[in-house]
Amino acid sequence: FSFPMATSRVVPPRYGASSVPVEERRFAKVLDDGERTEFVLLGYENCIMVVATQLRQLGHLVYAERELDADQDAEVFSVRVLLGDRREPLLEVCARQLIANVATTSHRSVLLCLALKQMTPQTVRSVLTTIIENRIW
Question: What digits encode the pLDDT tens for the residues 65-85?
Answer without folding.
Answer: 998 766 766 789 999 999 999
